[in-house]
Design a protein that fits this description.
- The complex is a heterodimer of chains A (about 250) and B (about 350).
- Chain A has about 250 residues and is α/β, with parallel strands linked by helices.
- Chain A is built from ten helices and seven strands.
- Chain A has a seven-stranded mixed beta sheet, sandwiched between helices.
- Chain B is α/β, with parallel strands linked by helices and about 350 residues long.
- Chain B is built from 13 helices and 15 strands.
- In chain B, the strands form three sheets. Chain B has a seven-stranded mixed beta sheet, with helices on both faces.
- In chain B, helix 3 (about 60-70) runs parallel beside helix 5 (about 90-100).
- The longest helix of chain B is centred in the middle third of the chain and has 21 residues, at about 220-240.
- Chain B is globular and about 70 Å long.
- The N and C termini of chain B lie far apart (about 45 Å).
- Classes of the chains: A alpha/beta (about 250), B alpha/beta (about 350).
- The interface of A and B includes residues 46, 86 and 87 of A.
Chain lengths: ~250, ~350
Amino acid sequence: MSYVEKFKGPKSLSGKEFTYCPGCHHGIIHRIVAEVIDELDIQGKTLMVAPVGCSVFGYEFFEVDGTVAAHGRAPAVATGMKRSSPENVVFTYQGDGDLAAIGTAEIIHAANRGERITTIFVNNAIYGMTGGQMAPTTLIDMKTSTSPYGRKAKTEGHPLHVSEVFKELAGVAYLARTSVNTPQDVMKTKKAIKKAFLAQINDIGFGMVEVLSTCPTNWGLNPVESMKWLKEKMYPEYPMGIFVDKVGDDK
Amino acid sequence: MSEKVMVKGTEAIAEAAIRAGCRHYFGYPITPQSELTEYMARRFGDGDMNETFLQAESEVSAVNMVYGASCTGKRVMTSTSSPGYSLMQEGMSYLAGAELPSVFVNVTRGGPGLGDIQPAQSDYFQAVKGGGHGDYKLIVYGPESLQESVELTVKSFEVADKYRTPVLIMADGLLGQMMEPVEFPDYVDLDSLEKHSDWALQGSNKERPAHRVTSFNIDPYGLEEMNNRYQAKYREIEKNEKMYEEYMLDDADVVIVAYGTIGRIAKSVAKMAREKGIKAGVFRPITLWPYPYEELGSHAEKAKLFFTVEMSAGQMLEDVKLSVNGKVPVEFYGRTGGVVPTPGEIFSKLMELV
C-alpha cells in the first residue's frame, strides 16, 4: 500500500525500546528533546549525560555520543565535557532525586557559572527507579514508601521549588517550567527546550527546562488518573511559566 | 631537556603535566597542595579556549569534571590532599569502570578525619586496595624526589592513555612542599597525542554510530564480562609497569622497605648501618600498584630481616609481608599524625632489631 506513510521517530533517537512504565512521560520528553536536536541540526555534535534514576539508560535511547554520570553529578560531568570540548553541544537529563537532592551542589554551581550546557529536569515528585520514595519535590501530605504517613513540612520540609530558586542566578540564560499533559503543553515544552539549547548554542548561558511529569507506577494511579492528578495537585504547587529568557525570539 | 630550575614539589608536578600535554585542570583548594591548583590557574586561566582551569565547588565535582573532560579524549588532571581524595572515591570508581584516562595527585597529609596538614603516608590502603566500590585498580606511583615526580607525572599521562585507566601520584606532603632543582622535559607535540577517536565522545558528526562511555550494565553476565576485561587489563599492567629501586641489596642481610620520601631517607639509614658493619640495603617500590611482590620477595632467599618504614601505622607493611611470605621476620617502624621520622631515629630502631 504505497499511500501508507509510516510514523517516523526523530533521527536523534536510537530506536532502542524505552524501558519506561505505561503512562510515564519520560518517553514523550525524550522524543521532544530528540526532535529539537534534529531541528537544530546538532545531532552530530551533541553529547548527552544521563543521570541515575529511571532515565539511567537515556544515553542508549538517544543516537548521540553519551555517558551516564554518578547520581547527581551530571552537571559536573557536562561541565568537564563542555570546557574541554566547547565546539560540542552538551546536555544533561535529570530527575528530581538526581538534580534536586543528591546533585544540588553540582546543578546550582553549573547554573551560577552560566555553564554553556542545557539541562532537562524531569520533576515527578517521587523517586521512580528505587521504587517510590520521597523526593525533595514530593508534595505535602503525599504518601511515598519513605513518607508512608504523608510528607509533613515540620519533619520533611517543604517541596523544593527548583526553578524559583534558579531564576535568581545570573548565569541562567533560559529557564522555564512546563508539562507534557496536553498537546498544547507538548508544543510549549518543545519551544522551551529549543530555547534552552539556544541559550547554549548562542553562548548566552545556562539553559534549563523543568518538565512536570507523571509516575503512574509509584503514584499508584493509572495513566489517565495520573494526568488528572498532575493537573490538580502539581500545577498549583509548581506553577508553569517562563522564569528567565535571555534568548529572545530571533533564531 | 632544558637546564635545571629550582621549584616547589607541587609546582614541579603541575609544570610536568603541562609539558606532558595536559591542558585541562579541575580542582578544589586544600592544603598542602593548593600551590598546584594556583599554578594551573596562572597557566590555564587566561581565557584561552583550548585550555581549562576551573575551580570546582567541591572535590566531588572536580573528579566528575575530570570524568567529563576525559570522555572527550583530552588529557586532564586534578590534584588534592587526603580529605579531598576521600571525597573523590566515588568518582575514581566510575572512572575505572568507564575506563577513562586521567591523572590524580594526592599530596598526602595526616589523618584520619580532618587530621592535620603535615606529611603522611596513611592513604596507602585507599590508594592501592580500592578506595571506591567495586573491583578496580589504579596505577599508583610513589616518587621520592622532585625529579622523579616530574618523570612519573609525564609517565602517568602516557600509561593512562595506553591502558585507559586513572593514574594516581602519591606525593606525601614533604614532597609537595620542598624545593629542589629539577630538569623538565620538552613540551610534547599536542598533535602527536592519542585522540581516542575510537571511543571518545566528540560528536558522531553523523558519520558513525553513537559512542557510549559507561561503567553500567544491568545484566550480571554483561557486567561480569566488563569486569573480566578490567582484570585482564590489570594483569597486563602488572606484567609491564612494575617499577622499583634496589639500593645496596646485593649482599644485604637487612632489607629496608620504604617508598616516597621515606624511601629516600632509608638510603641514608642503610649507609649509617653499613658504617656500623651491618649489611643493609633498601628496596623502594616506585609503583605502589602494581606492587613488585616477586621482586621484593626474592630478597627473602638471602636476607635475614626485612624492616619496613612508613609514615603510617603500617599499611604497605601488609604487602611486604605478602612478598616475604613468612620466610624471614618482617619488622616495622612507623610515625603517624604528620611526624616525619629522622634517619637517626630509624637507624636507632634498626639497631635494636639486629
